[in-house]
Amino acid sequence: MIHKNLSIRFWSITLLGAIFLNSCGNKPKGTPSITGTIEGGGGQTIYLEKLEPQKAIILDSAKIEENGKFAIYKKAGERSFYQIRVGKQKPNNSIAPNTNIMVIITDSTETLKITASYPACSATYVVEGSEETNLLKEINAIVLANQARIDSINQAYQQNPRNFDRAKATELMNAIMTEQSAAMKAFVEKYLGKFVTLQAIAMLNPDTDLNLFKQSSELLSQKYPNNLFVLNFSSSVASLTKLAPGTIAPNFTISTPDDKPISLNDFKGKYVLIDFWASWCRPCRAQNPELVALYKKFKGKNFEIFGVSLDQNKEAWIQAIAADKLTWPQGSDLQYWNAAPAKLYNVSYIPFNFLIGPDGTIISKNLTGKALEDKLQELLNSKQS
Q: pLDDT per position in the chain (385 positions), as tens?
């Protein structure tokens, strides 16, 4: 699949790759809010930073003593994601092992004590005084362990690609991700309404767990109505709810290759598969032969495909339609990822599809291969050829 911004498939908290802003102030007098020991960190500067979507803001900093002791005086504000950074290094992945970043969840009411070893702070830090930080570490430990398992499979392939059993490896990796999803779902259900669940639910599929997303959004919005992470999450859930199975598919109008208007409403009364694709998308082009075969099988049985391209170059789009022998209706506004239909349907990667019923309601989304064929077989009540 091709992602809009090379990010993960579902909405993300975006703790990773933050932009750092310099805004240190004078240290207030009083009791420190965070103290601790960073072994091997003597002489380094330690920073308390508040994380916001796509950036991190420095709240306070201090020089670590030669014996590793430090004290941060400025208190955190609202309950949210923060990080303790040791030194100037700013890694791209703050939950990776052996970085100088320690992600925490805290607020102004908590006093924390942190111990760690520099520079592998993320792998060694221990936090007292913050239950949610320790829950966050549980989530990250699961993710890192599963990533290590997947890395070992990839290494096995690199060492012996000729004798590598790809089918078995794919099955194993899918099993790992299924196991991880089950663990994340259980975590969210156990700690429903806690701020830390934002990190776990980001790794679930809203298509299969939409009710849990809605329940989480409602509880978190009540507790943290002004938090940017919660606001982003709730906005995403609201958009997903509008496109849930059983809801009316929003109409849109774009242009055919010969510049005539074409609308989703043109297909009312039929089962229609909205296929989001593009000429430049290799996975889309690889999937097209399957759609061609599917179209031949079900064309004329109250079924239509409506191709919606995220192309910019009209000529390339037209050439791809001809090369792939796509004989179903096609449309595009040639706006790439800014395509109006893609925004309307929250499409963040392609290929992606929606199956719409004759009454205009969404039946399902992103069915492919045999799953899509079986669903059409069921809906159209046709016999296997």
A: 655 543 333 333 334 333 333 334 444 557 999 999 999 999 999 999 999 888 899 999 999 999 999 999 999 999 999 999 999 876 555 556 679 999 999 999 999 999 999 999 999 999 999 999 999 999 999 999 999 999 999 999 899 888 888 889 889 999 999 999 999 999 999 999 999 999 999 999 888 899 999 999 999 999 999 999 999 999 989 988 999 899 999 999 999 999 999 999 999 999 999 999 999 999 999 999 999 999 999 998 999 999 999 999 999 999 999 999 999 999 999 999 999 999 999 898 999 999 999 999 999 999 999 999 999 999 997 544 4
Phi, psi of 19 (to 5 degrees): -95, 130
Q: Kindly state whether residues 30 and 44 are assigned to the same domain.
A: yes
Q: How many CA atoms lie within 13 A of 238 on its CB side?
A: 8
Say whether both 233 and 278 belong to one domain: no
Could you tell me which of 43, 49, 83, 45 has the C-alpha nearest to residue 62? 45
At a CB cut-off of 8 Å and minimum separation 6, what does 233 contact? Answer: 11, 198, 201, 216, 217, 220
What is the count of structural domains for the chain?
Answer: 3
Q: Which domain holds residue 65?
A: 17-129
